[in-house]
Amino acid sequence: MIIFLYLLLALVLSTVLGSIAIPQIIRIAFQKKLFDIPNARKVHSEIIPRLGGLAFAPTVMMILGLITASDELLGFHVLDRNLDSAAVTLSMGLSAGFMLYALGAMDDLVGISYRGKFVIQVLVAAMMVSSGICLDSLHGLFGVYGIPWFVAAPLSVLVIVYMINAMNLIDGIDGLCSGLSMVASVTFLGFFIFMQSWMIALITATVVGVLIPFFYLNLWGTFVKKRRIFMGDTGSLSMGLLLAIMAIKLSASPEPTERQVTINIVQAFSLVMVPFMDVIWVMGTRVYQGKGLFVPDKNHIHHKFMRIGLRPRVALVSILTVQLLFVGMTYILSVHLNINMVFAIDMGAWVVLHIVLAILIKRRESEEVETKQVLEKDHMRYDMKQMISMSYKKKNKATLSTDKNHYHNKKEDRI
Hints:
This protein is mainly alpha-helical. Helix content is 77%, strand content 1%. The chain has helices spanning 2-32, 56-73, 80-109, 114-130, 149-170, 176-194, 198-220, 232-252, 258-271, 273-288, 301-307, 312-336, 339-414; strands at residues 35-36, 48-49. The protein has a two-stranded antiparallel sheet. The longest helix is centred in the C-terminal third of the chain and has 76 residues, at 339-414.
């Protein structure tokens, strides 16, 4: 019972701390003029602070330290077993998390080259893997079960770095990165509670709590009242690392039956499917079109939903709905089908989604071209009418002038 009180306390305290810290960050951002400047690729048209992610890591670390210390000081010792088994992971995780947090803050404030960011991300991922966050088994996915360490370690580093960047790239419209993170984190929290993995559950509850005030201010904050804010690289990189850790912990967690483990690994994949698959799809599209892998474009999933005519908030709701549908579908199918069948259905559904979006985009663009042509024709007809009207007026004016001269000439002859 005490552990559930800890989880509720973590959720409430992180929400309160986030609600206090984020408005202060907004105030400082306006004082120091630290804004995200609009450009052709961005949806917003006004300057907005982008340092919301500065509140994430300190809040998680503060609440985690407060609750674990209180558990020990008050003599409950509920987290003792989890602390003993996770001491190295926690210590290394805090170090790696702070390093990534500093990287994101520096990038938001002064900018860092992508090579420098990549090196730090690989180092952070390697630190996490060395502490025990390692994907050492796929439990039958692609026919693979146990993975030797020399393969599992680089694979885990790749997954962590990939997820960090996927969350960074998906942060394209208000509420998308934080919304997807909340959907994933709440579901992860449910799994960790079910599996009695209390330490990672405590971290996840804290993450959910700090995301709530940010999501509200990011989506409903107004520029006039100086309440709106973006999470920036500090937030998106931190969320990418946290979600990667949650997914690997869920995939690697021992369960009473092998069946339950296979459900967990496909669920872990479905919970981060939108950002995970979006990067693969975008990169594949760029290769197919002969573009560079890192050339900016508008082929991300949020761009596509807006290209079919949806407003940003409607696109946000649509993408979150897609995420929830994938999670629900994967869970239901996992109970009845082989893990590889579930994975194949997920992939097929993702491809179908993009085919439907491509058809709708093409139809809308064709309608826009037709509308433009009709408007151009109408404009040409209007111009022609105007020209004919002016010509007719000039002709009448010339005729009247001639008649008037003729009348004056006759009058002079009479005189």
